[in-house]
């Protein structure tokens, strides 16, 4: 048995575990990630990498690799509500393909369809595979014990049977909804809504897109008496996923029959898999136990409706990552790591409820059999349903920047300023209010204000200069990394100044505003101690 030392041990190599390793690597922290599988993703779970997550991929230098992973830039991104694929179309939300999409004014990135069988290799290649990198596949956590000094984890290499003890200053559990680590720590994750059972049918239909032509969609929401769940293009080529509710007695439904009920045109298909799964809505009571932290599904599980789950977990990883780095490098105070749970647990609950609203909107819909017919009554029902969808804004499930960006951290390491912005994600607009993600604006072609943030704090200065040298000296004396960026008085920079709203805006390594003001504070020491968790 050998002893191995590292700063941070990550348990689990799913998307969130990989993001955790990427952030720690970005911050210059030594870490080891162990994953009990060989790392190959066999179930291509559909994962849309959200807007904020793509900003983090930009930060790590792999946004282009995610875009190039395999999705056809010309493939439609439309969402259609249909009685069946090839049947009556009730309503369609149009979204331009990536080839035609224009960047939003509030971010330098677009979201990107990238199922996990594409997502994982991008990160694995970025991090480097064992034995030359930070990932150790086929490595199982057997047990762990934490002391005041470290966490000692006993792990077994499943390929060789070799047992090692990894000593880490901190351990991050990214081991999923059934987290062994969380359960051993005695932390419960109560359900906030009833658990539901679904089944996932993955199949190949190589001719479907061509047959549908201009009527093809990325997502079809089936609206008929038999199926009221989505059918989605997985890879933009031939692979699709159909979500179903099992039979009332709990038995898995026949996949062939279900596909034929979902697709009314004659098209060849081949079933790849048909697996049941449980939809849970849970948030852990605590996100920390001493030197152990819970990130992603080990801390919270959400409905996939809206695509917030993985992206919430990636947000966890970045929030925790810079705080671990600051603590390990010596400038993070004793209260800094406590702020991880304070900040991220509230966001997990918020996103869980937004996802559940999307789920309930679909499940509450009553569908009479006549909707399938060509009769005047069927046509009238479809028209009325379309009008209702338009009024209720069903499109917002697939275009929800306020959910991805509009959250605000409230914690002891944030200094409030004035009246907070609205908490309604559908009223969101960019703001420099402390706790919010700092606004995006183009400094020059290809360079966003967001590209300034990542390592240490950044002080954005808009015209005012008084006190900056003193502010920088205090940070230097406390070994707190600080970069100062002056915005010149040009037309473009004036627009940036309007977005940032104050003469001075101090931005954290994760891109969230820590403090702002029209003048620098008289007691700079107190401010720096607050935002670094030293008071």
What key phrases describe this protein's structure?
D-Amino Acid Oxidase, Chain A, domain 2, 535 residues, Glutaredoxin, 3 domains, single chain, eight-stranded mixed beta sheet, alpha+beta, globular, FAD/NAD(P)-binding domain
Question: Which structural class should the secondary elements be placed in?
Answer: alpha+beta
Tell me the count of domains: 3
* CATH homolog superfamily of the largest domain: FAD/NAD(P)-binding domain
- What share of the residues lie within helices? 25-40%
The profile of the biggest β sheet is: 8 strands, mixed
Count of helical regions: 14
CATH architecture of the largest domain: 3-Layer(bba) Sandwich
Intertermini distance: 42 Å
Mean pLDDT: 93
Task: Assign the CATH class of the largest domain.
Answer: Alpha Beta
The low-pLDDT segments are: none
Strand content: 15-25%
CATH topology type of the largest domain: FAD/NAD(P)-binding domain
**Which radius of gyration do the C-alpha atoms yield?**
24 Å
What does this protein look like?
The mean pLDDT is 93. Helix 1 runs parallel beside helix 8 (309-329). This protein starts with a strand and ends with a helix. It has three domains: 2-70 and 105-188 and 283-354, FAD/NAD(P)-binding domain; 191-281, D-Amino Acid Oxidase, Chain A, domain 2; 408-531, Glutaredoxin, CATH 3.40.30. It is of the alpha+beta class and 535 residues long. The strands form five sheets. Strands 1, 2, 7, 8, 9, 10, 16 and 17 form an eight-stranded mixed β-sheet that branches. An eight-stranded mixed β-sheet has the order 5-4-12-13-14-11-15-18, with helices on both faces. It has a four-stranded mixed β-sheet with strand order 22-21-23-24, sandwiched between helices. The chain has 14 helices and 24 strands.
